[in-house]
Amino acid sequence: MKVALWEKDLASLVRAKAAVFAGIRSLVGSLGAGAPAIDRAIISGNFGRFLNLPAAIGIGLLPGMPLHRFGYELRKPRGVGYSGMVSRARMRP
Question: Range of 53's domain?
Answer without folding.
Answer: 7-86
